[in-house]
Specification:
This protein has 356 residues and is an all-beta fold. The protein has one domain: Neuraminidase. 2% of the residues lie in helices and 59% in strands. The chain has one helix at 4-9; strands spanning 36-46, 49-55, 61-69, 72-80, 88-97, 101-110, 116-126, 129-140, 148-157, 163-170, 177-186, 189-197, 208-211, 218-229, 232-241, 247-253, 261-267, 274-282, 285-292, 301-307, 315-321, 326-332, 338-344, 348-355. A 4-stranded antiparallel β-sheet has the order 1-24-23-22, with no helix packed on it. The chain has a 4-stranded antiparallel β-sheet with strand order 2-3-4-5, with no helix packed on it. A hairpin with a 7-residue loop joins β8 (129-140) and β9. The protein starts with a helix and ends with a strand.
Length: 356
């Protein structure tokens, strides 16, 4: 567990990163089915929010979420050896007073070396406003039990210019680590950015914009990335313009993330929001998750869509968590015919879904 003293010493860089390897996507030509069906019930990961997970090299799964206790925000790491049915807490990456320290959006990822990284947002705030924004990475060399600070890839002073929702993947060369995240330029404008590292996340390049550069009044955010096949990638994100409703969009890359384009709308319910998306490749079928209030009532539900043509078209909508549920995550399971839908539904939960 990261003590308060450690947190104080790292005020400008705080906390820790967990590294977990991302599942390798199956080429689109080996596509499995596209019709999703719930398999079993919801499985509790722990009492927290914003769950994310990735496979480790031994075939087990490492997960992370943000818990809250005694006025503190706590980045918590859990482990599953049965493909997400049961979860056990193994460590705490960082802890800070919620009133002054906004730590959240954890994403775990394992490097080829076996080191586990955890990337997360790590902000300072005072009197309800943000005074400094960071994306921070911590690492563990003992399977998530103990954590140390590694780097701060992005940092900006408040009260605007926020950095949010980091996501990690390893490039096709097996060496280049890619960090995707969202950055505010103003209250009305936010872009999707990427930085790269060739030394395991210790140092980072300057940021490049992968979506949002063509407009100063749209907010692109909540970024997720999946491999379609080979060097072909798809990124998914929410966006809204001039304070309107959120909808889900995508861009693609044919050179493993170096350049991006081909912006498309994935889902835009008329008069309602669709937001906070993620994406994964399940045996060649792309699966997108998001939260939406389109059913009316109070709160949002988690829904998924599938695509059998690399993201050109989407369908087969399914609710994986009813209202009120938030912060959808995804993890392809090793059988490449099923996946975990993750969400905060009265705590961090995992729901298995199969494709046929």
């Amino acid at each position: 567990m990261v003590a308060h003293g450690f947190l104080a010493r790292l005020t400008a860089a705080a906390l820790c990163l967990l590294a977990i390897p991302i599942s390798t996507a199956v080429p689109i030509e080996k596509r499995t089915g596209v019709v999703p069906t719930l398999s079993g019930g919801e499985n509790a990961m722990g009492g927290g929010t914003y769950p994310r997970a990735n496979y480790l090299s031994d075939g087990s799964i490492i997960g992370a979420y943000t818990a809250f206790s005694n006025g503190d925000s706590i980045l918590t790491v859990v482990h599953s050896t049965d493909n997400g049915v049961t979860w056990n807490q193994v460590g705490t990456v960082a802890r800070g007073a919620t009133a002054t320290t906004d730590i959240d959006n954890p994403y775990p990822f394992q490097l080829p070396s076996g080191r586990i990284l955890l990337v997360f947002r790590n902000h300072d705030r005072s009197n309800g406003g943000y005074t400094f924004f960071r994306i921070t990475i911590c690492y563990s060399d003992d399977n998530g039990v103990n954590w140390s600070y590694l780097s701060t890839p992005a940092s900006d002073p408040g009260p605007i210019n926020g950095n949010w929702e980091p996501f990690l993947r390893l490039a096709e060369d097996g060496k280049t680590l890619q960090l995707y995240y969202s950055r505010e330029n103003s209250a009305a404008d936010q872009d999707s950015l990427m930085r790269t590292s060739t030394d395991g996340g210790a140092s980072w390049t300057s940021a490049t914009v992968i979506s949002g550069a063509d407009s100063n009044n749209q907010r692109d955010g909540m970024l997720g990335v999946a491999q379609i096949s080979g060097s072909n990638l798809i990124a998914i994100f929410e966006s809204e313009t001039n304070g309107g409703k959120f909808s889900v969009h995508s861009v693609t890359s044919s050179d493993d993330g170096k350049t991006w384009g081909n912006r498309k709308t994935v889902y835009a319910p008329s008069g309602f929001n669709a937001q906070a998306p993620q994406i994964t490749n399940v045996g060649g079928t792309l699966v997108a998750s998001f939260q939406t209030d389109e059913d009316g009532g109070s709160g949002e539900a988690i829904k998924i869509l599938t695509s059998g043509d690399g993201g050109a078209t989407w369908g087969n909508k399914l609710t994986t968590f009813p209202a009120t549920s938030n912060w959808a995550g995804l993890l392809t399971l090793n059988d490449n015919a099923s996946f975990l839908s993750l969400a905060d539904h009265s705590g961090a939960k995992a729901q298995k879904v199969t494709l046929s």
